[in-house]
Specification:
It contains 14 helices and twelve strands. With 436 residues, the protein is an alpha+beta fold. Bound molecules: flavin-adenine dinucleotide.
Length: 436
C-alpha cells in the first residue's frame, strides 16, 4: 500500500478554498478549505472573510486522511486486532506500517520527515484508527499529540533536528509524567534530576507509561529543584539504551491490552545537557499545555471507538440476527436505542472537532478539550456497553470486537486526566466566567 501521507501531500499543498458538499461513507461532509490550518502559508487566508461552516465539515485533505486511514485500519490492522488483544502485544509489523504510512509525524514539518499537516488531520487519523483498534490509536495519539508536539513546541532548533527525524521515521515516543504516588496530582512527582558537569542525572520511577515497550525516545518530567515545588519540574529526553534507564513491570490491563503500559526506573540515569527539553523549571507548563491538546486526541479515540462498536452491532442487528421471524434491528425497542447512541456519537464528534478547530484557530480551547474528552469517554462507555447487549450472547464472547470495545472504553475516563479532573477544569473555568 502506498504511503497515506504521500498520497495526501499533493492535495495538502493546494491552497484552494472551494466550499463543496460531498458526503462520505463515514458520514462526514467534506470541504476543500485550509482556513484553519496552522501552517504559515495557510494563515494567509483571512478567517473573518469565510462564512462559518458546519463544524464536522472536513477539508479535502482531512477527509482523504479519514478515508485512507480507515481503509488501512480495516485491511491491515483489522485482521490482527483479536490476536494482539489476546497476546497483549502490539504487532511490530503494525508499528512499522504506521511509520511507512506517515502516521507518526502527521503535524511534523516535511523538513523533519513529517507530513506537515494540521492538527485536525491528526485527530481524524486517531479517530479512524480507534474505530478498528483503540490500542493502535493510542500509540499514534501519544506519539503525535504529546511527544512530537512537545518537541515541536518546546525543543530548540538543535533538538528538533535531532529528535524529530527519528520520531517520524522509526522511533516511537513515550510521554512520562505519572508516577506511583502522583496521578491526578501530577506535579507532586518525586523523580529528581541533578545537574552534573556536562548534563543531568535522573533518579526515580514513572508508572503507567504508554508505548514503553515500543518506544526509543522518552520525554521524562523530573524535578530539578524540589525546594521550588512544581516550578522545579523540568522536561528531559531519555533514550532507551541510556545506562540507568530500565523498563520494569508491564501492566496486565482490562482494556487496550495491545498498548503497552509499564513502570520505568531511572537509577543514576545520566543524560547529556543537550537532552534538556526547553528550559529548566518550565516542565509543568509544557506538560499542561501539551496535555490540553492531547485530550482532544483521547476524545477522538473515544469517538472512534464508540462508532466502531456501534457499526459492528448495527451491521449485526440489521443483517444477521433474526428472532420472532424478524431481523432484531427491526424492533422499535432496538431501533430507538440505536438511534439514541448514534446521536450521542455525533454530539461527541462535534465537541471533538470544535475543540480541534478552536486550537487551530488560536482560540482558547481548554474547556472545549475537557468537555470533549469527558463527553466522548462517557459516550464510548455507554455505546460500547449497549452494543454488547444489542448483540446478545454474540456480544459477550471473545470472537468479534464488541466485548473488546466495551473493555477498551473504560480507559477514556482515566488517562490524560480522569473524568473528575475534566469536570474540575470545566467547573473552574465556568466559575471564573460567572463570578462577579
Ligand atoms: C492504560 C494507562 C495508560 C497511561 N498512560 C500514561 C502515559 O503515557 N503517561 C503518563 O504520564 N501517564 C499515563 N497514565 C496515567 C494516567 O494519566 C493516570 O492514571 C491518571 O492521571 C489518574 O491517576 P491515578 O491513576 O493515579 O488515579 P488517582 O489520581 O489516584 O485518582 C483515583 C480517583 O480519584 C479521583 N480524584 C483524584 N483527585 C481528585 C480531585 N481533586 N477531585 C475529584 N476526584 C479526584 C479521580 O478522578 C479517580 O476517580 C496512564 C494510565 C493508564 C491506566
Amino acid at each position: 500500500m502506498a504511503s497515506i501521507i504521500r498520497a495526501l501531500r499533493p492535495l495538502s499543498r493546494t491552497p484552494s478554498v472551494r466550499l463543496a458538499g460531498k458526503r462520505l461513507a463515514a458520514g462526514r461532509p467534506v470541504q476543500s478549505a485550509y482556513a484553519f490550518s496552522t501552517t504559515p502559508r495557510r494563515r494567509e487566508v483571512d478567517l473573518s472573510e469565510l462564512t462559518p461552516t458546519p463544524i464536522t465539515l472536513l477539508s479535502e485533505t482531512e477527509s482523504l486522511m479519514a478515508d485512507t486511514v480507515s481503509k488501512f485500519a480495516v485491511e491491515q490492522i483489522g485482521p490482527k486486532v483479536r490476536e494482539m488483544d489476546e497476546s497483549e502485544t502490539m504487532d511490530a509489523k503494525v508499528v512499522e506500517q504506521l511509520f511507512e504510512q506517515g502516521l507518526m509525524g502527521i503535524e511534523v514539518p516535511e523538513e523533519f520527515g513529517g507530513a506537515g499537516m494540521n492538527f485536525t488531520a491528526a485527530i481524524v487519523a486517531i479517530e479512524e484508527l480507534a474505530r478498528v483498534d483503540p490500542s493502535v490509536s493510542v500509540l499514534v495519539d501519544v506519539h503525535n499529540t504529546l511527544v512530537n508536539t512537545a518537541i515541536m513546541k518546546y525543543g530548540d532548533a538543535k533538538a528538533q533536528r535531532t529528535w524529530l527525524p527519528k520520531l517520524t521515521t522509526g522511533t516511537v515516543g513515550s510521554f512520562c509524567l505519572s508516577e506511583p504516588a502522583s496521578g491526578s496530582d501530577a506535579f507532586a512527582l518525586q523523580t529528581k534530576a541533578e545537574k552534573t558537569a556536562d548534563g543531568y542525572k535522573i533518579n526515580g520511577s514513572k508508572m503507567w507509561i504508554t508505548n514503553s515497550m515500543e518506544a526509543g525516545i522518552f520525554i521524562v518530567f523530573a524535578n530539578i529543584d524540589p525546594s521550588k515545588g512544581y516550578k522545579g519540574i523540568t522536561a528531559f529526553i531519555v533514550e532507551k539504551d541510556t545506562p540507568g534507564f530500565s523498563i520494569a513491570k508491564k501492566e496486565k490491563k482490562l482494556g487496550i491490552r495491545a498498548s503497552s503500559t509499564c513502570v520505568l526506573n531511572f537509577d543514576d540515569c545520566v543524560i547529556p545537557k543537550s537532552n534538556l527539553l526547553g528550559e529548566e523549571g518550565q516542565g509543568y507548563k509544557y506538560a499542561i499545555s501539551v496535555l490540553n491538546e492531547g485530550r482532544i486526541g483521547i476524545a477522538a479515540q473515544m469517538t472512534g471507538l464508540a462508532l466502531g462498536a456501534w457499526e459492528n452491532a448495527a451491521r449485526y442487528v440489521w443483517n444477521d440476527r433474526r428472532q420472532f421471524g424478524e431481523l432484531i434491528g427491526n424492533f422499535q425497542g432496538m431501533q430507538h436505542q440505536i438511534a439514541q447512541a448514534y446521536t450521542e456519537i455525533a454530539a461527541a464528534r462535534a465537541l471533538v472537532y470544535n475543540a480541534a478547530r478552536k486550537k487551530e484557530a488560536g482560540q482558547d480551547f481548554v474547556q472545549d478539550a475537557a468537555m470533549a474528552k469527558l463527553y466522548a469517554s462517557q459516550v464510548a462507555g455507554r455505546v460500547s456497553s449497549s452494543a454488547v447487549e444489542w448483540m446478545g450472547g454474540m456480544g459477550f464472547v471473545r470472537e468479534g470486537i464488541a466485548e473488546k470495545m466495551f473493555r477498551d472504553s473504560k480507559i477514556g475516563a482515566i488517562y490524560e486526566g480522569t473524568s473528575n479532573i475534566q469536570l474540575q477544569t470545566i467547573a473552574k473555568l465556568l466559575q471564573k466566567q460567572y463570578t462577579n
